[in-house]
Design brief:
about 350 residues; 14 helices; alpha/beta; binds iron/sulfur cluster
Length: about 350
């Protein structure tokens, strides 16, 4: 079942509101909070800037993120947490976008803050695993972390065979003093699987080795030659409905694919230092983007060649177009027929 099928009670009305329907008047503050609570399943909250790697399928490879660090201001982290606590947010929070979270020495303290405000949220992050050690994992576990996904990225322009993957996987598990392996992690396991998961110190550790050179996306068009297939996208996308993406400087983008650094600001939705999360989530910019992503039609801008998978079936297109036709957006002025007006 995909996201749009799971949007339960009042789903169609809410979807129309999230695509800018103003036929019942402008949204009240409480309506915005209800929409956020019901529809956002993942918050991407990037707490720091730098990454120590420069994978050839990642825009960090040509960004100053390789060699300069900065951190989300602590008052902004607190602001996000307070706002989310107003709706008792209890879904996922992912503490990375294009950074390596373990380069942040204060990460455990920041997770403590998030956990204090949001006791039921599921807190996790992706990491390249280079700095993951047992004492650090213990601190993170004590702070309230639930999950780390470690990706065994290959070095730039180096092919990583199964023997190297096996060696790296076992090295990480050894550093974490995880001793329950037997012979299961032999070469045939590496060949037949692309991940291994276990619990250490109560934290779920998922270690994965996908082939991002083959299956990677073009990150909002910043990686023109790095996409599984370069075709015009027509399929829908649920991400700006179900995700809310905040970068290190408080900048909000429509999804995690929209790369942002000191140079790129592809689809600026706004900044959490000026507006609350709920106003940003129901902003005109995101409403219009969601409207263009709801049906099967040619996509534009950062979405035009994006290969992020969507599970919608083309058989749903007719009913989606009917729903789009019902949207009345009185915030967009009627087109003026200049000929009639000035004749
Ligand atoms: S893919 Fe991850 S580890 Fe590699 S450069 Fe990008 S952010 Fe860093
Ligand atoms: S189509 Fe791609 S770029 Fe566009 S919103 Fe979805 S994930 Fe982001």
């Amino acid at each position: 079942m995909h996201y749009f099928q799971m949007v339960g009670f009042n789903g169609k009305k809410n979807l129309k509101l999230l695509m800018g329907d103003t036929s019942t008047g402008n949204l009240k503050e409480i309506d915005k909070r209800v929409l956020f609570k019901r529809h956002v399943e993942v918050i991407n909250l990037e707490l720091s800037y730098e990454c120590n790697r420069k994978c050839d399928y990642c825009p960090v490879s040509f960004s100053d993120r390789q060699n300069s660090q900065s951190y989300m201001k602590e008052n902004l982290i607190e602001k996000v947490c307070k706002e989310l606590s107003e709706i008792r947010y209890d879904n996922k929070i992912s503490l990375n976008l294009y950074n390596e979270p373990l380069l942040d020495k204060k990460l455990a303290d920041k997770i403590c803050t998030i956990r204090k405000y949001l006791p039921a949220a599921h807190i996790g992050f992706n990491s390249n695993g280079d700095f993951l050690r047992l004492p650090l994992l213990k601190d993170l576990s004590n702070s309230g972390l639930n999950h780390i996904c470690v990706t065994l990225h290959p070095l730039p322009n180096v092919n990583q065979d199964n023997t190297i993957i096996q060696r790296r996987l076992l090295k990480i598990l050894k550093r974490l003093e995880y001793n329950f392996i037997d012979d299961e992690l032999d070469i045939s396991f590496i060949e037949l699987n692309n991940s291994f998961s276990c619990y250490v110190e109560g934290v779920r550790i998922l270690i994965q080795w996908p082939d991002w050179r083959k299956d990677g996306t073009n990150r909002g068009g910043t990686l023109e030659n790095n996409s599984a297939e370069v075709n015009k996208r027509v399929s829908p996308c649920a991400r700006p409905f179900r995700e809310f993406t905040i970068f290190y400087d408080g900048n909000v983008q429509p999804c995690c694919e929209s790369f942002h650094d000191n140079k790129f600001n592809l689809e600026n939705v706004g900044n959490i230092s000026d507006q609350n999360l709920f106003d940003l989530y129901t902003s005109k910019k995101l409403n219009q983007m969601r409207r263009s992503l709801y049906d099967f039609s040619e996509k534009t801008g950062i979405c035009s060649e994006c290969t992020v998978r969507d599970f919608s079936s083309y058989s749903e297109d007719k009913s989606r177009k009917e729903l789009l036709a019902e949207i009345k957006d009185f915030s967009i002025p009627e087109k003026i027929d200049c000929q009639t007006k000035f004749d």
